[in-house]
Amino acid sequence: MKNSILLWMFGFLFLAESCKKSDHVVDTPQQGTITMEVDESFQSVSEALTERYMALYPGTKINLVIKKEDLALLDLLDNKARVIVMSRDLTDDEKKAYKQKVDLDLLPAKFAADAAVFIVPKNSTRESITMDEIRNELNSDKKNITFDATNSSNLNFVAQKLNTTPTKLKFSIINGNKNLAEQLNQFPDKIGVISLNTLSRPYDAESEALRNSVKILKVVQGSQSYEPVLKNLANMSYPFTRVLYFLTNEKYFGLGNGFIRFSCTQLGQIVVAKEGLQPYNIFKREVQMR
């Protein structure tokens, strides 16, 4: 009788411990739920990639949260998000914070070439803008250059490209990439700055309407002018080309790393191409047949 009671107690403890462990199951690339945060500038390509991944693996759920790039980085460091998308280089202080808080080597997973594009109303006579004009306008009290938000990815990237900081620049704001494109016609003297991804989806009615409502300016550098088209993104000749990359705080091969791997391999890169962006890891190959 005594032995039976002991066996029953051991069995109960084993069952309780098993149930306790099952409450803390680690996610896998095929199952689980995570949060991914991205700037609105990269929302379109991020939605396309997450939707495709979840369709392939119905047991997964990637909650996509739209948040400014800088705030997304803070959430990653505080373990509030598993994966984020970045477009600018991290500062030395940010790299140190990543190493201290996440305790991983910094390994950006590059997956697409996007761009910050300069737009004007459709009926504007302007066709291009020089690098010097951009610098001069961003130091002018007229504030003719308009960004989608303070501390947005577009503003941060342009400032970094010009070797300065956003706090030293003078500009106006119309909140949101899409809002900026839609409202720019009300401000004929303004030059907007939005992400190429806002306009790039080739077969999307909303993207097509936005493209038709504005004019994308060529950027003149030296004696050459460059459009934000795929060949100029592929060779990085368009001056404001930027490479989008993932960062994660995941220390095992779970859902976050599974999604990142998918996005950087052929299936994910095909999704990037369908978004009208330049895939980072696959390029078009020309074959001559004789």
TrEMBL record:
Domain named PBP: residues: 28-263
Keywords: Signal
One family name in Pfam for this protein: PBP_like_2
Keyword hit for Transport: no
Transmembrane segments: none
KW Translocase (keyword) present: no
InterPro entries xref list: PBP_domain, Phosphate_ABC_transporter
Protein name as annotated: Phosphate ABC transporter substrate-binding protein
Organism this protein belongs to: Kaistella carnis
